[in-house]
Amino acid sequence: MLLCIDVGNTETKLGAFDAGGAIVGTWRVTTARRRTADEYGVLFSAFFSAARFPIHGIEAIIVSSVVPVVDRPLSEGCEKYFGMRPSFFTAAAQRSIRVQTDRPTEVGSDLVAGAIGAVAFIGAPAIVINYGTATTFGAVDADGAYAGVAIATGLQVSLDALVGRTAKLPQVALVAPDAVIGRDTVTAIQSGLVYGAVGQTEELVRRMREVLGANARVIATGGMAPVVAAETEVIEMVEPHLVLHGLRVDHLAALRV
C-alpha cells in the first residue's frame, strides 16, 4: 500500500492506494503549523485504525508539502509510527514532467504533482485548475511539459477578506444562488464570488487555449471545484484527489528508473 500526503496551506490530504492503483482511503485534516511528530503519528494511526487498514501494509510514503515548517515533525511522525521516513516530492527531484518555467525548482510541488495527475487523466495539452487557498491555473503544453501557471485569490480567502474588511457583511455559504442579481446581502455575495469565479475561469481558459491550442482539455480539483464546474462547461472533469494521484504516478515512474 502506498500512502500519499498533500500538505496544503489550509488542509492536509491523505490518500492510500492499493497495489492496483485504486485509492482505497482518503482523509483530510487542518494543516496545523505547530503539530508535533507524535500528534501526526497518533492522528494518522487513528485514521488507519478506523478504516481497518493495517499500518504494516504501508510500503512507501510520498509527501508534497508547500508548508516547510511542518515537514520535519511530519517526517518524524511517519518514521516513529509507520517505521519509515517519507520521500518528499519536489519540482526539482521529480522526473515525470519537464518544467519549463524561468525558475523550475521554485514551482510548488502541488502544482507539479497536479499537472502529472492531469496528464495521466486527460493527456496533453491540459489546463489544471485547483480551487484551494489560491486558485491556480496550471498549463501543460502539447509536448507534455509544464509551461507555467496563473495564480488568483481563492474563493474562501476572498470571502474572508471581504467580510473581515466590511463591518456589516456576514459569512455565507459559497454556493451558486438562484439568480445572478442578488436580492439580499447573502445572495449578492454568493453571486459576486461564485459567478465571478466562473467568469474568471472561462476567461483564463480561453486565453490559455490561445497559447496551448484549442484542444487543451480542462480538469479541476480543490474544495470549490464542484461548485464552479456546475456553472460552466469549460471544466470537463473534476478530480478531488488529483495531486495525490500525481504523487502516485511519479512514485511509480521513479521505481521504473
Please give a quick description of this structure:
The chain is built from seven helices and ten strands. The chain has helices at residues 37-50, 71-82, 109-122, 155-164, 185-212, 225-229, 242-256; strands spanning 2-7, 11-17, 23-30, 60-65, 87-88, 126-131, 134-140, 146-153, 217-221, 237-238.
Structural class: alpha/beta
Q: What level of helicity do the residues show?
A: 25-40%
CATH superfamily of the largest domain: ATPase, nucleotide binding domain
Largest sheet: 5 strands, mixed
What is the strand content? Answer: 15-25%
Strand order, biggest sheet? 3-2-1-4-5
Shape: globular
The CATH architecture designation of the largest domain is 2-Layer Sandwich
Total domain modules: 2
Can you give the mean pLDDT?
93
Helix-strand pattern:
EEEHEHEHEEEHHEHEH
Separation, N- and C-terminal Cα atoms:
20 Å
